[in-house]
Amino acid sequence: MNSLNSHSPWSSQRSARAVANECLTTYPPQWTPAMLRASGTKVFFAPRTTAPILPFLGRAFLLGVALLGIAQAAFAEQPSLDAATQPSTVDAPLPVYRARFERTRPVIAIVGENSGTELSDFAIPYGVLVRAGVAEVITVATQPGVLHMRPALQVQPDASIAEFDARFPQGADYVIVPAVVKFNDPTLLAWVKAQGTKGGMVVSICDGAAVVAGTGLMDGHRATAHWASAKNRRRLFPSVKWIDNIRYVADRQIISTAGISAALPTSIALVEAIAGRERAASLARELGVSDWGTAHDTAQFRPRLGVNLRALIAVTYTNGWFRSTEMIGLPIADGVDEIALAVTADGYSRTGRSLLHALSASSAPVRSRSGLMIVPDTRTDGRPMDRELPPLEAYPSAESFVKTIDGIHRLYGRTTAYGVALNFEYPLIPKRSLANEALAQ
Questions:
Q1: Whose C-alpha in 5, 101, 133, 279 is 20 to 30 A from the C-alpha of 364?
Q2: What domains can you pick out in the chain, each with its CATH number?
Q3: How many CA atoms lie within 13 A of 321 on its CB side?
Q4: What is the pLDDT of residues 274-315, one digit of tens each?
């Protein structure tokens, strides 16, 4: 189970702490060096890769600086538009699908950038839309080869963008854009813009909004994204009408979502737009989703002293500074639930204390329940994992958020579990005994 591909991004030759520093945010330093820079307050932090050489007093000093800077961020003024003050069309259902080019069903492209694409943003829409059976869903990469997901796993896409264009020269009906590390990648920007120009609906998941905004397609449109990128989004893309307190928003040809967990209800809303309320409701019951509306409270996730600040600091800084990083293995086999796998791998790899590897009996790609091709991880040094989780059980996919947060709570404690929930933008505060208490909406 612990054999491995030399090209894996989780090779032991790569600094585990450097990888862990990517686990909280999928964006490069010039975008959001840490999710907690939500207010744009200038704070100087040492990179997590320097942790092994920082003496204790140095770490304590940096922790004090972090606390001061994040406290300032927590109380900084953030000009924003609230969904409640916007026209009623903001929280309206997504536009109903209109068939084009004599297609019997829509073509949906889920695009990733090879060097780093957010795992749950990518896998959740794929799993939901394929299970719905209402569209032709194709995973696409900017270049040939595997997609290195962040913060964990690898995926073999169905096609490169060149191959997709050769097959569908008229473009996709929907293009789903997850958050990526290189949000300003010229190839990705040009392709997404071209798809929008051809008339396709462009759907950004979480901070995939940075890609869509970078194309200019969002200019003059209402849009939303992850709570932590709000200040930087408004600074970098002032022509977009950024809205808070909404799970997803559709404005003409552009659909955008809040943070990671919003991918699930938004995907069900897309099913409703394509195939109607009855099909969406049936699928929602299967997945364990009771509500896929737009209601959302962004404020509960922002840094607040005495509420969630300790949890956010833990998963961003102190866990990595003061704790060793565990390599956790998770056995997978054909038929694995790609939604549950993505959320589990995403969550454990966002703790600042662990990185999750997908393990298989061979190096051959594993086909998920809905057909996503997952490339197993291995370690080049031949060492076993520090810990191995049991194979995922069968349960409604939506439960994976609570189950993952609960598992992290049991393993690493309430503070770390809460930090992961905040990072997922998932409204759950772990109890001191169990992670099973949802926030009042």
A1: 133
A2: 81-287 (3.40.50.880)
A3: 20
A4: 999 999 999 999 999 999 999 999 989 989 888 899 999 999
